[in-house]
Amino acid sequence: MNFAHAQSAKQKALEAERQQKLREIKQINALLFSNKKEQKSVITLIEDINYKISVRKNLIRITNEQANLLTREINSNQKEITSLRAQLQELKDDYAAMIVKSYKSKSEQSRIMFLLSSENFKQAYKRLQYLKQYTDYQKEQGEAIKAKTEELQELNIKLTQQKKDKQKLIEENRVAKRKLEDELKNREVLMASIKSDMSKFNAQIKKKRQEVRELDKEIDRLIKEAIAASNKKAGKKTSTGKFVLTPEARRLASNFESNKGKLGWPVSRGVIKGKFGRQRSLTDNTVTQNYKSIYIATEENAEVKSVFNGEVSGILVVKNGNPAVMIRHGNYLSVYMNMSKIYVKKGDKVTTGQAIGQVFTNRIKGETLLGFRIYKNDQVINPEPWLAKY
């Protein structure tokens, strides 16, 4: 791949990434900020704005990369245009000199005399070949000038379009930066509003962390039980924390694994508001929480869908929490949490995209949030890279 092709491929990749971020912001606005009448807790509002700010910053970064790449492409094309103009001028000068020379000896009589003055047949034949080659060369030079002129015209058109594209990106980034500034100011106002009652919000966050830990424990227990029961049924006893797979289960696991990055979302419309892994507290930067789930904000009464073919391995009912559904896909498990309704029961076979329940809507916080996890055997893994880009 040459430099120009590499630049073009990079530009296409960046544009695809930018469009994905634009779609994500559109979804955020539709799902988190469209209903002005809906009352949300301050903490939820801050979470929503934080999420939007992070996506907006990524959008600005990507757009900057695109503009910088276009600048490099424009500079490269301008150099190429300068070189092409010099080559074209040289071709035209050579061709002009050739035409003048040809004109001076263009009479048919002079050509015939050139041939007749040959000392022998062999020399006459060579002179005839020379005349033919000279005519062909004239034709080739004319075609070369035409091709070089067309190449130069195409490059000039491309350069003009690139300059327009760059200007458009710069303008879009100006707009994005203004919106980011407004969002940052809005967040400052909200953060100031909770400072006077920080102990109350810290208590709420602490309670939420405790609930998450209890849910983690319950899911871990249920997974261990599911592995033990499955292996016992297969006539195997193992304490490795891994499923002993039948040929059918191995095929299912292989199919699930081959669909990494292509799995359908567990809800029809949603944005990943809460990320997997260690996240800092909104009210205290020194406090972090390790999340085993991603949290997908969606619309009220949203149905939850199985991301792949499988079997319902268990229904979790956590004290002071909402139920969750666990589905097995060979030695992989997908877990759907914070449900209000369950349509399936343990042992049911489910298919990709099948509705298995509804997401719970928290009226106090003003949000509809689905927790989603993926395990390989008893090890939790980040589910976000497994889901298809929308």
UniProtKB/TrEMBL annotation:
Domain M23ase beta-sheet core residue range list: 291-383
Classification via Gene3D superfamilies: 6.10.250.3150, Glucose Permease (Domain IIA)
Coiled coil: 67-101, 145-232
Protein keywords: Coiled coil, Signal
Alphabetical list of InterPro entries matching this protein: Cell_wall_metabolism_enzyme (IPR050570), Dup_hybrid_motif (IPR011055), M23ase_b-sheet_dom (IPR016047)
Signal peptide: none
UniProt name for this protein: Peptidoglycan DD-metalloendopeptidase family protein
Native organism taxonomy: Bacteria, Pseudomonadati, Bacteroidota, Flavobacteriia, Flavobacteriales
